[in-house]
Amino acid sequence: MAAAKTPPKKKEVLLGVSGGIAAYRVCEVISLLREQCAFTVVMTPNATRFVTPLTFKTLTQRPVIADLFEYEEQARPGHIAVTENADLFLVAPATANVLAKLAHGIADDALTTTAISLACPVLIAPAMNPRMWSHRAVQANVAALRAWGYQFVEPTAGHLACGDWGVGRLAEPAAIVAAVRRMLALGGE
After folding, report:
1. Please, which pLDDT band fits residue 1 given cuts at 50, 70 and 90?
2. DSSP string spanning 88-99?
3. Beta-carbon contacts of residue 104 (< 8 Å; ≥ 6 apart)
4. CA 178 to CA 186: how far, in whole Å?
5. N or C: which end of the chain has fewer CB within 10 A?
6. Lowest-pLDDT range, 9-23, 46-60, 134-148, 151-165?
7. Residue 20, helix vs strand vs coil
8. Measured distance CA(72)–CA(51) in Å, rounded
9. Pair 30, 90: CB distance under 8 Å
10. How do 37-43 and 11-17 pair as beta strands?
11. What DSSP designation does 82 have?
12. Listed residue (46, 38, 49, 45) closest to 15, CA to CA
């Protein structure tokens, strides 16, 4: 009888979810990558108002970090421990607020504190109103993050939940998945 094959080890993806209406679309990214990647979700407080931590816990079969202090009883802080085996940090959707915090080293919630604790590649998928996306401050923050080597999945043009049309819509889940696969050398476009 042939020996059973051990499935390949999944890549570890830290998924930072910030508080925008596009947060619900990230659930599909997890679903499309769950055969190749294991996800640990880190959320901002505002993100929990759009998609509950329970949704992400159910999709990932892992605890969700939404409160910086909920892991106090552990020897190592949760935001440090989750970074140690991360192959990629994906921030989707990334709001203007989170982009600014990342570009300026502001660490005041679970997502941003985790972000300055890691040593893996970073992929960012922004989503916001078109006027916000084109604002000089947002573009300066994006330029700073690019200069640090952060990769981006550009927002697309289309109708947004706010009723406006323009560039700022979260990239399609398939485009985010393709970028993750490319960065992790997973294949399977």
Report:
1. low
2. EEEEEEE-HHHH
3. 141
4. 9
5. N
6. 151-165
7. coil
8. 24
9. no
10. parallel
11. T
12. 38
pLDDT of residue 153: 98
The residues, any chain, with a CB within 8 Å of residue 156's CB and separated by 6 or more, are 167, 169, 170, 171, 172, 175
Give the torsion sign (CA, 7, 13, 19, 23): negative
Tell me the β-bridge partners of 42: 16, 65
CB 80 within 8 A of CB 115: no
CA distance 109 to 106: 9
* Residue 65 tokens, joined: 């970090």
Please tell me the predicted confidence (pLDDT) of residue 75.
47
Contacts of 59 (CB under 8 A, 6+ apart): 27, 30, 31, 34, 39
> pLDDT-based confidence at 94, cuts 50/70/90?
very high
User: Pick from 92, 96, 170, 162: which is nearest to 124 by CA?
Assistant: 92
Query: What is the structure's pLDDT at 9?
Result: 87
The pair of structure tokens assigned to 97 is: 């607020």
Is 80 exceeded by the pLDDT of residue 6?
A: no
* Annotated active-site residue in 27, 37, 120, 162: 162
> Can 27 be counted among the known catalytic residues?
no
